[in-house]
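Deliverable D4.2, example record:
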Amino acid sequence: MSVCSFLVRNWWWMLLLILVVATELMKTQPVWIEHWYSGRIFPVVSGVQRALLGRLPFSAGDLLLVVVYAWFIVKGAQLIWVMYKWRRNSAKWKRILKQITTVGVSLYVLFYVLWGFNYYRLGSAYQLQIQPAEYTAQSLDTLFSMLNARLLKLCHDSASIEKSKRLTNSQFTLLGIESYRQLQGTYSFLQYRRPSIKSTAIPQLLSYMGTMGYANPYTGEAQINYLPPVFQRPFTITHEMAHQLGYGSESEANLIGYLACRSSSDSLFRYSVYGSLQGHTLRELYRLDSSRALQLAKLTPHYLQTDREAAQRFWEQYKNPLDPLIYKVYDWYLKINNQPMGQQSYNYVVAWLVGYARKYGWEAL
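Output generated by the structure prediction step:
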């Protein structure tokens, strides 16, 4: 068989291979991605997505997720059955295998074209002109002290926080949008337009997966799980909005979410972010100096400790035998997408905060 006839007969597989190779090569170009994809192409693509789907009263992303997973399960079952039933008739199972491969590769390429290349951009280090700093137990001790001081001040006015906890989902959304509006006065590239923040249609499933929200790359929507305790909600919303703006890295989305919540006029938003970051700091400090971390944990405001105990009781309800598998799959997903720390990437926000403090001073936090 000549090369030409081989290519003609297998043109479809060759096309899929070319698309995958082109996608992989693009990941190695962070400068191009930052200036052209994240800076010019993605804002247009995401703007169109949110303009088209943002006003829908339901989550198109959740619907798409369910349909895609259901399709792969059905096709996978068909493939296994046909291969078992028709071992000698390869045409039947090859046809199904081609369908699965075609849809899988198409979704893979679309994932990166629509959003995923943001994992490989220069990101916050380039835009904010700060670097995540190597941290020691001493620097984390100082970081804890600054964050805890903010929390103590906020908790003195717990009545204001309690009042905000009674806000509706739509009001939380508006406050999240307003926090970015305040932030763009300092960082013009953090302009958030055409809101598309939805209450997920599958909150129980997300809770079993230990997820408070996610940004859907195919629809541009931010899906928020409103079941967990309210105090976790504001930071979740601003974190997912950061993903919508093109920050793929979880630590960077935490950093941008922090800047947004800190800019908010609402005390619950500030309480939510400082409480979350204080927790990240304690976890990292425990890894370096467990005795000091346990000692500092006792300084946590009683009001926050009460909220954390409520959160712990909530998440205990959703523990299940699949937790280790879910953790490993998501850990693997993050690692293959330019986040070598995997799930620990969320905690790495402390490195950004230490870097921020070194540039602007600890009081700036």
